Amino acid sequence: MPSVQCPGCKAHISVPDLINCPRCQTFMDPPFLRQCAPAAAAAARVSGYGLGAKEWLGLSVIGAAIALVGLILYRLGVHSESQVHDRKVSAALLACL
């Protein structure tokens, strides 16, 4: 089995697929990560997890605006008990005249 040399402590490690050196915990940058990194980055961009801070901020502002419009429409469409009572009293007074 081939061995790799740790860049931190210069120890020879017989398992080349380790991510960290078992002696000094230095990041090893194994070959399998170098091969998978471009594919993982492309998949993250496609799936939407690669959004930056500006994109997340824009999405949160849009979400807040949609929630505010929904709240306003709800308050206009659903009347409180006092509004319903006032309308019934007004209708009764008009009926009495």
How does this structure look, described?
Helix content is 60%, strand content 4%. A hairpin with a 6-residue loop joins β1 and β2. The chain starts with a strand and ends with a helix. The model has no long low-confidence stretch (mean pLDDT 76).
Distinctive features:
mainly alpha
Any chance you could write out the topology, listing elements then pairs?
Layout: E1 4-5, E2 12-13, H1 31-47, H2 53-77, H3 81-96
Antiparallel strand pairs: 1-2
Entry summary:
The chain has 97 residues and is mainly alpha-helical. The protein is built from three helices and two strands.
User: What's the gyration radius in Å?
Assistant: 32 Å
Number of separate domains? 2
The count of β-strands is 2
Span between N and C termini? 102 Å
Uncertain runs: none
Strand order of the largest sheet: 1-2
Binned strand content: under 5%
| Main beta-sheet annotation | 2 strands, antiparallel
How much is the average pLDDT? 76
Structural class: mainly alpha
**Helical percentage:** 55-70%
Number of helices: 3
Principal-axis shape:
rod-shaped
